[in-house]
Each structure stands twice: as structure tokens, then as C-alpha cells.
Amino acid sequence: MNSSPLSRTATLLLRSLRAQQGQWISGAVLCRQLQVSRTAVWKHIGALKTFGYRIESSPRRGYLLREIPDRLVPQELREGLQTTVIGRAEIHYFPCTESTNRQAKTLAGGGAPSGTLVLAEEQTAGRGRRGRSWFSPPGAGIYLSVILRPDITPQEAPRFALATAAAVAAAVQETTLVETRIKWPNDILAGGRKLGGILTEAVLEMDRVEYLIIGLGLNVNLDRIDFPQDLRETATSIQAETGRWTSRIVLTRRILESLETTYHEYRQRGFAPILQRWEALTEMKGRRVAVDVMGRTYTGEVTHFDADGCLVIREAGGEAMRLFSGDVNYLG
């Protein structure tokens, strides 16, 4: 199932144009392929143009696809996507929505299968951890949520925030060459500033997880001046770090592929090798931190991360403290 702004006929038309991209294809050929009239072809060409596809037309030569817009529509995302689960069952696309996690939760509650993907060009109420908002301007970032139905216990669910962070950080670094780091549990950093955030939500049934929602917000094509004033010192984007525009379609595909590979690895080999990669992407060990846990602050030196990915700090009195979640601030 695809929740897409493109009709079935427009999708088939786009497929024909894409197959001949850079070459002219006659209206008569398109009519035969789609089994529609010339008027219908013209109508759907107009719809594609409205959506950002640059298509030239000529009475004698037909139509020529010149440029594909960088929008995260299902038809574009699936082109070349190397996954078997994520993005293969259902893709739900929204030009604008309050929150992809909120949409995903509704879909999951209605029985959407594992691997269902929700994408948005813009979020009006994008959410971060602990109810915070996530700046989500149109066409400038990657805002997505994935529904997974892993056979795991509730105690395992927090591991998926770290697994997702490792997968996303690696995909961003590989695709854009931006040097990424992770701040526990799930902030993606570049140059010491926040590049992306991950929000995982689990719905539990007694001794098992019914489903997981993994949400990602990633700043891609924004200049630093595009951020609100209160975020300019703490947030960054791929464009701000590289000075270059990045294809969100290409990057999203790579992120989904990395996430699926990590998901299969977890099922086959467990969490240990993923945690090892996650630790290689963080610079927290040995640093003094203050961790806010539901309004209470714990201060100490980061000693390690345990087998479940929990943060372990040693407080001033020498006592080790194991923390499942919290907001970390570096102290020097």
C-alpha cells in the first residue's frame, strides 16, 4: 500500500518516463502503454509537473523527463531501495503532518505490518524525547517513522534507540562524509551540535513487545541561519557542515538499508556487536556529565555502557549509578 499524492495512472506514466529519462517518448507510445487517451496523458503530465517533475513536451517528439524532485514520495524512495522489510509492506507519505510517530502509532494500532514506513515533508508538531518539539521545516530534513514488530521482551526495547542511532550515524557518515558522533542515548551529533534525534516508542503486551515505533528527525538541507535563533548554537545540518546540498532521497534509502541491516543483525547475533559499533561513535567515556532523570540530576564520570546500553556513571562518592534514560549535559 502506498499513501501517495500520485494516482496509479500518474505513477505508471512516471515509470515509463523514468525508463526513458533523458530521451523523448511519444504521446502515442504512452497512450498504448497506459491504455488511456492523449488527453489523459496530458492531464497526468500536468499533475507530475505540479508536483515538481520537470517534463518537456513537444507536439512532434512527445515528452521528456528532465529532472526528478527531491521529495520523499514512495515511487522515488523505492527506486533502488535495497531492503526486504522496511518500506516494502506499506509506505505512507504526507506533504505535511503533525508527527510521523503519531501517524505510525495509529497505523500500528490498526494492524499495519512490520516494516511499514511513514514519511513527511514537514511536521507541524514533530516530537523529540520527553515531549520536546522537533524543528521540521518543509523539504529540508528527513522526518520518518518505522513500525517494527520484533519478537523481544519489554526489557530489550530500549536497545533499539541505540541500535537506530548507530545505524543512522553510520549511514550519514558513509553517504555525506560528515563525521558523526552519538550522545547517549540517541542524539546524532556533528561538530558538537545536534544533527538528528531518535524517538522510540514501544507498546507492550504482558511479557512481550506488540510493536515498536522508531522515529527519526534529521537536519539535511538547512543553512545555520535557517534555524530558529534559540537553536543556532546547538543545532546543525548536513548542509551547514559540508556546504553542499544533499539528496534526501539517496540519504533516506541508505538510512533505511542501514537500519534494516542492523535489525537483522540484532535478531541473528544479539545486541553486543551493535553496542560495540555504537560505543565507537561516542566520545562520552571518561567525561564528567550531569544527567537529568525526571527532574533529578545525577553527576559523575561516565565509566561505561552496560550490556543493555544503559549509561553507568561514577558519582563523587565513588558509587556507580546505572541509568536507563535521561538528558545528558557535559561538564567541561
Summarize this entry quickly.
With 332 residues, the protein is of the alpha+beta class. It has helices at 8-19, 27-34, 38-50, 74-78, 100-109, 159-176, 238-242, 248-269, 272-280; strands spanning 2-3, 54-58, 62-67, 91-94, 117-120, 141-148, 180-183, 187-190, 193-205, 208-219, 288-293, 296-305, 311-315, 320-323, 327-330.
* Average pLDDT level: 91
**H/E series, N to C?**
EHHHEEHEHEEHEEEEHHHEEEEE
Provide the CATH topology of the largest domain: BirA Bifunctional Protein, domain 2
The profile of the biggest β sheet is: 8 strands, mixed
Question: Number of domains in the coordinates?
Answer: 3
Total of helices: 9
Taking strands numbered 1, 2, ... along the chain, how are they ordered across the largest sheet? 1-4-5-6-10-9-8-7
Descriptive tags:
3 domains, BirA Bifunctional Protein, domain 2, eight-stranded mixed β-sheet, five-stranded antiparallel β-sheet, 332 residues, alpha+beta, SH3 type barrels, Arc Repressor Mutant, subunit A
Task: Please explain how this structure is put together.
The chain has 332 residues and is α+β, with helices and mostly antiparallel strands. The protein folds into 3 domains: 2-67, Winged helix-like DNA-binding domain superfamily/Winged helix DNA-binding domain (Arc Repressor Mutant, subunit A), CATH 1.10.10; 74-280, BirA Bifunctional Protein, domain 2 (2-Layer Sandwich); 288-330, SH3 type barrels, CATH 2.30.30.100. The chain is 31% helix and 27% strand. Strands 1-4-5-6-10-9-8-7 form an 8-stranded mixed beta sheet, sandwiched between helices. It has a 5-stranded antiparallel beta sheet with strand order 14-13-12-11-15, with no helix packed on it. A two-stranded antiparallel sheet has the order 2-3. β7 (180-183) and β8 (187-190) form a beta hairpin. The protein is elongated. The N and C termini lie far apart (50 Å). 39% of the residues are buried.
